[in-house]
């Protein structure tokens, strides 16, 4: 059975019944049909949240298809629930780019999924659409102000970096010219489109604490400079009020259910290779207010989503995770051990051993934050006992617990070993042990250096001429105190996606550095990163269809 077949075989419970398991009354819900609802922000209780145990699910460097962090996160929640623990899983929303592109949906897999799978993977409750509209409203107001004769801030169009966004992979829109057609249209200038998940609005939504904080952060978005070299922000255009109005519902987390009928929160969806890669602070705090154990995930490998979760999100929101579940797969270790994508299903214990340095580096990285890692082997049908034993032996050698998780095939029952290891580990750890990798007040270059050398393993950092000018601009804008959100390939610990395994003695090249002053971080761009992905030769969209009765097929 496909993931969609499995999802459709489940008799969904009414969302009121799911809410009741969290002691939430039906009249507190904002219903989106029978199986989805938004939750009010007043359900967040900071005192209760302090008592919840926060568990981060991350991974080793992935193959192009990903290694199943979402599947493990959902399965772990089911496993804890099967142990009669009060737990909840908090996830990101899928972007339509991957859904119709290469990776497919992001609702888990097999018997470890969140439902309704089709709705979540498609338009869901409209959060992405609201973010897109707020982003593009600001873009329209910028061009309108440049064009205006009576309400003109004298913006230098050449300095405007703000782009429009669209939630679809479309390489043709990466670089465009707007304003053609004469003086009544607009002022011609070069710009482009990013994918919605890469919008600063998405980052802001996922880092804000409430609607007032959201509006203030929107106002702090840096637009560009006037011809007199004065910085211009969204508040100067009086845009943040209208933008916040468009986001007044999107700011609320979404309640759905797992295959086994347990509650799950889904909210926000920034990518981890070009943004911070974690769900919203609001959703995480709400989950922690509603359960004793809160499981959340961060995108791609620990070097990207995990590092940003800990250095940006946790520092910003005052969160202190106690355990990191490091998802590893046999196929990813083979990939980093030198095998091609076509060979990953062929048994090869030696190739698994060759890929262990990548796992080793991620373990070391977790421990740099004074957090205990647990290796979760996300089991695939092609995995052999000999290959699995390689990881178990390695874990014993490193002094790190290893749990086999067959959640795709067995759901919560397949996660019992992992759930028990997590519970036992949490008994002996303290959330006070967590410490960030760097302090925000350090110089920008020191913070970049800390990530590049400690997390990636770089021996040197090289700045382009443009990046050096960007550093001066950041200094002049007074934004030195912001944390770092590195834009880097997810395929390698380095900035070269062909350097697999555990690269060493390499130079990290910083091409340029952008600022997301509203979100509150600085974005060094390492290598040739694209914020608007393209479709593959045979996108997943070719397989997706709907019949005359509205039944969808082809989603995976």
Biggest sheet: strands, sense, closure? 12 strands, mixed
Using the CA coordinates, give the radius of gyration.
Answer: 23 Å
CATH architecture heading of the largest domain? 3-Layer(aba) Sandwich
CATH fold type of the largest domain: Rossmann fold
Characterize the overall form.
Answer: globular
Distance between the termini: 11 Å
Mean pLDDT: 95
Short synopsis of the structure:
By secondary structure, the chain is of the alpha/beta class. Helices cover 35% and strands 17% of the residues. The radius of gyration is 23 Å and the shape is globular.
Describe this structure in words.
By secondary structure, this protein is an alpha/beta fold. The strands form 6 sheets. Strands 1, 2, 3, 4, 5, 6, 13, 14, 15, 16, 17 and 18 form a 12-stranded mixed beta sheet that branches. Strand 5 (about 110) and strand 6 (about 110-115) form a beta hairpin. Helix 7 (about 125-145) crosses helix 8, helix 13 packs across helix 14 and helix 14 packs parallel to helix 15. It is globular and about 70 Å long.
Features:
single chain; 556 residues; alpha/beta; Rossmann fold; Domain 2, N(10)-formyltetrahydrofolate synthetase; Formyltetrahydrofolate synthetase, domain 3; 3 domains; 12-stranded mixed beta sheet; 3-stranded mixed beta sheet; 19 helices; 23 strands; 17% strand; globular
Give a topology summary.
Elements: H1 3-8, H2 15-20, E1 30-31, E2 37-38, H3 46-51, E3 53-59, H4 69-82, E4 87-91, H5 96-100, E5 108-109, E6 112-115, H6 117-121, H7 127-147, E7 164-166, E8 176-178, E9 189-191, E10 193-195, H8 200-207, H9 211-219, E11 222-225, E12 231-233, H10 240-246, E13 254-258, E14 263-266, H11 281-290, E15 293-297, H12 302-317, E16 323-328, H13 330-336, H14 349-367, E17 372-378, H15 385-398, E18 401-405, H16 407-410, H17 416-428, H18 444-456, E19 460-463, H19 465-477, E20 507-516, E21 521-526, E22 545-546, E23 552-553
Parallel strand pairs: 3-15, 3-16, 4-14, 4-15, 7-10, 16-17, 17-18, 19-20
Antiparallel strand pairs: 1-2, 2-13, 5-6, 6-13, 8-9, 11-12, 13-14, 20-21, 22-23
């Amino acid at each position: 059975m496909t993931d969609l077949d499995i999802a459709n075989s489940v008799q969904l419970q009414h969302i009121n019944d799911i809410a009741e398991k969290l002691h939430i009354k039906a009249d507190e819900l904002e219903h989106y049909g029978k199986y989805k609802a938004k939750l009010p922000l007043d359900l967040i209780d900071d005192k209760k949240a302090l008592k919840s145990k926060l568990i981060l699910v991350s991974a080793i460097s992935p193959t192009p298809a990903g290694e199943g962090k979402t599947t493990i996160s959902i399965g772990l929640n089911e496993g804890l629930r099967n142990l009669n623990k009060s737990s909840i899983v908090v996830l990101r929303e899928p972007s339509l780019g991957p859904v119709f592109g290469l990776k497919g949906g992001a609702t888990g897999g097999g018997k470890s999924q969140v439902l309704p799978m089709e709705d979540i993977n498609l338009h869901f409750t409209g959060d992405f659409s609201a973010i897109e509209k707020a982003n593009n409203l600001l873009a329209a107001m910028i061009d309108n102000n440049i064009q205006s004769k009576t309400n003109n801030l004298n913006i230098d169009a050449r300095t405007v970096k703000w782009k429009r966004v669209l939630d679809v992979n479309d390489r043709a829109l990466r670089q465009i010219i707007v304003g053609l057609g004469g003086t009544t249209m607009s002022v011609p200038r070069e710009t482009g489109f990013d994918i919605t998940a890469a919008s600063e609005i998405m980052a802001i939504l996922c880092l804000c604490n409430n609607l007032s904080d959201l509006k203030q952060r929107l106002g702090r978005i840096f637009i560009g400079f006037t011809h007199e070299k004065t910085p211009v922000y969204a508040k100067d255009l009086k845009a943040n009020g209208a933008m916040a109005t468009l986001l007044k519902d999107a700011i609320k987390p979404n309640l759905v259910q797992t295959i086994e009928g347990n509650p799950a929160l889904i909210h926000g969806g920034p990518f981890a290779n070009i943004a911070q890669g974690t769900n919203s602070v609001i959703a995480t705090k709400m989950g922690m207010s509603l359960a004793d154990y809160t499981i959340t995930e961060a995108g791609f490998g620990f070097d990207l989503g995990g590092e940003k979760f800990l250095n940006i999100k946790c520092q910003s929101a005052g969160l202190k995770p106690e355990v990191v579940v490091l998802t590893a797969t046999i196929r990813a270790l083979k990939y980093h051990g030198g095998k091609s994508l076509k060979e990953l299903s062929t048994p090869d214990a030696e190739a698994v051993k060759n890929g262990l340095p990548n796992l080793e580096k991620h373990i070391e990285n977790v421990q740099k934050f004074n957090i205990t890692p647990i290796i979760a082997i996300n089991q695939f049908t092609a995995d052999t006992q000999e290959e699995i034993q390689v990881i178990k032996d390695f874990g014993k050698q490193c002094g790190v617990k290893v749990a086999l998780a067959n959640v795709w095939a067995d759901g919560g029952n397949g996660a019992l070993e992992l759930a028990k290891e997590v519970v036992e580990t949490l008994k002996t750890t303290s959330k006070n042990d967590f410490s960030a990798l760097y302090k925000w007040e350090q110089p920008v270059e020191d913070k970049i250096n800390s990530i590049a050398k400690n997390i990636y393993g770089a021996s040197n950092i090289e700045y382009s001429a443009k990046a050096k000018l960007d550093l001066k601009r950041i200094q002049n804008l007074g934004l030195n105190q912001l944390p770092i959100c590195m834009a880097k390939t997810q395929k390698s610990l380095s900035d070269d996606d062909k350097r697999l395994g555990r690269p060493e003695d390499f130079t990290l090249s910083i091409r340029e550095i952008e600022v997301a002053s509203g979100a509150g971080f600085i974005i060094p761009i390492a290598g040739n990163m694209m914020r608007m992905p393209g479709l593959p030769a045979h996108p997943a969209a070719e397989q997706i269809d709907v019949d005359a009765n509205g039944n969808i097929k082809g989603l995976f």
